[in-house]
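Severity: low
Component: inverse-folding endpoint
Summary: output formatting inconsistent between runs
Steps to reproduce: submit the following structure tokens with default settings.
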């Protein structure tokens, strides 16, 4: 098995359209026809609720983890850390491209944020967990998945470049690309956030109800 074949397999793993299959199998709809029209966890939260949104997010993250970990099928990369990291980035990016342009769903997928996090989790777990922490804190405070994703992506870059100060040049470049990619793929969300029309996900609704009762 060579590197090119593994890259193709990583793309195919990333192409698994979790939200599309969930919406069609369990709800007889295409998630892309509702909400923002995006086939990702954020739109699943909006349309199908927090349980299915969480499920889609976890599976999409696992796609990144599994695809990025395919390097273990090539014994050479088990002993060469520099080559392994570079190859893992290639595998991970292939899965992200698959998520955004899925073969199994007419090349119309999600924004790749969860798969990117899964990729980072496979390459550098501590950085990934720190990034997910930022995502969860922002989500708890705002209930905007889009804002949480954007700030987590920027935090990922900051962690890599400054806090953890990773030495691998390609990984540093990758961190910058991740931040830029997440911002670019969330342009519509940013516009809605600025206009105050961005939808919040249906989580922590009991907390919000308690706050409303206290204010009343």
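Observed output (run 2 of 3):
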């Amino acid at each position: 098995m060579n590197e090119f074949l593994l890259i193709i397999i990583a793309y195919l793993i990333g192409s698994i359209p979790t939200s599309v299959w969930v919406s069609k199998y369990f709800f007889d709809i295409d998630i892309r026809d509702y909400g923002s029209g995006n086939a990702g966890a954020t739109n699943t939260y909006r349309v199908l609720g927090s349980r299915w949104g969480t499920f889609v997010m976890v599976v999409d993250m696992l796609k990144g983890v599994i695809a990025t970990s395919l390097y273990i099928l090539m014994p050479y990369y088990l002993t060469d850390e520099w080559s392994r990291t570079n190859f893992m980035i290639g595998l991970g990016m292939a899965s992200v491209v698959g998520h955004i342009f899925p073969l199994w769903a007419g090349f119309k997928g999600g924004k790749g944020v969860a798969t990117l996090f899964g990729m980072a989790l496979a390459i550098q777990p501590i950085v990934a967990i720190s990034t997910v922490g930022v995502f969860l804190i922002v989500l708890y405070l705002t209930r905007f998945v889009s804002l949480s994703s954007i700030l987590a992506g920027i935090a990922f870059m900051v962690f890599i470049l400054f806090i953890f100060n990773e030495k691998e040049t390609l990984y540093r470049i990758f961190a910058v690309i991740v931040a830029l990619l997440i911002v670019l793929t969330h342009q519509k969300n940013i516009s809605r956030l600025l206009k105050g029309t961005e939808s919040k996900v249906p989580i922590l609704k009991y907390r919000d109800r308690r706050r409303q009762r206290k204010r009343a």
